[in-house]
Amino acid sequence: MRDREPARKATPPVIVVGAGHSGVAVAAGLRARGWEGGILLLDAQKETPYERPPLSKELLKDGAPDESAVLRKEKFYEDKRIDRLSGITAESIDRKGSAVLLSDGSRHAYHRLVIATGSRARPLTVPGAGLAGVQSLRTRDDALELKRLLVRGARVAIIGAGYVGLEVAAAAASKGCEVTVLEFQDRVMSRVTSAPVSRHFEQLHERHGVQFIFGAAITAIDGVGRAERVVTADGTVVQADVVLAGIGVLPNQELAADAGLECRDGILVDGDGRTSDPAIYATGDVTRFTSPIDGASQRLECIQNAQAQADRVAAHITGQQAAVPEIPWFWTVQHGVRLQTAGVRHPDDDVIVRGEPAGGRFSVVYLRNGRLAAVDTIAGLTDFRPARKLIALGARIDPRLAADPSVSLADAISTRPNPTDAVPTAARI
């Protein structure tokens, strides 16, 4: 049994570094779970913490307001006695002294420290990457600048065909831009989905005028004073007024690494969010953890995981039981078509298509050793909710029945989960 953390008046606060989804959720979760001690939330930005998913979706649309929804209203922080310092970063951690040194020179002791520093856009490193007109998209300022540049007739080159790149491609095309997506792999969203889904979205974009160049290795951005063209290794040249680099993210782990915490492309945490220092937790995009489903080491960049991890951290600090988290899920909307994914697909999973992609609405289920491991639903959610439950149960699925969209996934179970099987039935991250 864990010791319950006392909340004495003299106890230093829980300090949360980072005010994204996970950091704010930790602070809110501590209060919701009865933590009466101090909470200090450090926010590198000066704005009230805001929602990130709309930045590459709604905010770029013509006529959309420049403000995105806040995570919590200012009054919430006041009411919950959460001290929020904005425009402040944590510069270093004094682990022996249980204190954090901030960018304003102040030093704050902590009872427990939570690192929720998130991730940043992976930068382009080719010549010309610093030219004006070369953008990334991570903050609201990034989105507003991009929105200003996406005007009718602008030539837009997007490097990377992941979620962000394709969402921006859809927004740019809808505004009358000439859009070219350059992708190193041979299909879109190759890291997160299978070929049938990739081809469906590639064709969707093409119908809206987006052009693709696959197998593109970017070697330079050329221009005088600002970006004018993108050059690839095979000599292809794409004229561009705007270049968006959507090539993934890097975890903001430097604060932890400099303090000697174990990091490996993310801060390593256990199932309760604890780092290699038991007084320091980490949560959200910046973490790497072992999946309870299949034992894989992974980082998950999604709101659902950020909030689930935050709950586990708040629960552990207050000595309570964490809620049973959901199976991780993700979503994107491109040209009005929603792709919703539950579970984490592996490249060697068996792929079964349910329905006819040409009809625009279908699902793809992924079986791993006969068990339902993940699902993609395109323009429909009929399979989504039951799939989440079946993934959590580690349900075995009959491939023949799963391929028939007239048969519900629940009726496609071939055998009930065996508690002696290697895959844990309690895997509900």
Task: Describe this structure as you would to a colleague.
By secondary structure, the chain is α/β, with parallel strands linked by helices. The chain has helices at residues 21-32, 74-79, 140-149, 163-174, 195-207, 254-258, 303-317, 384-393, 399-402; strands spanning 14-17, 39-43, 82-86, 90-94, 99-102, 107-109, 112-115, 119-121, 134-135, 155-159, 178-183, 211-214, 218-222, 229-232, 237-239, 242-245, 249-251, 267-268, 280-282, 287-290, 297-298, 329-334, 337-343, 350-354, 362-368, 371-378. A 5-stranded parallel beta sheet has the order 3-2-1-7-19. Strands 9-16-10-11-12 form a 5-stranded parallel beta sheet, with helices on one face. A 5-stranded antiparallel beta sheet has the order 22-23-26-25-24. A hairpin with a 2-residue loop joins β22 and β23 (337-343). The protein is globular, with a radius of gyration of 23 Å. Mean pLDDT is 92; it is low at 1-8 and 422-429.
How would you describe this structure in keywords?
single chain; alpha/beta; 9 helices; 20% helix; globular
Write a compact overview of the structure shown.
The protein has helices spanning 21-32, 74-79, 140-149, 163-174, 195-207, 254-258, 303-317, 384-393, 399-402, and strands at 14-17, 39-43, 82-86, 90-94, 99-102, 107-109, 112-115, 119-121, 134-135, 155-159, 178-183, 211-214, 218-222, 229-232, 237-239, 242-245, 249-251, 267-268, 280-282, 287-290, 297-298, 329-334, 337-343, 350-354, 362-368, 371-378. With 429 residues, it is of the alpha/beta class. Helix 1 runs parallel beside helix 7.
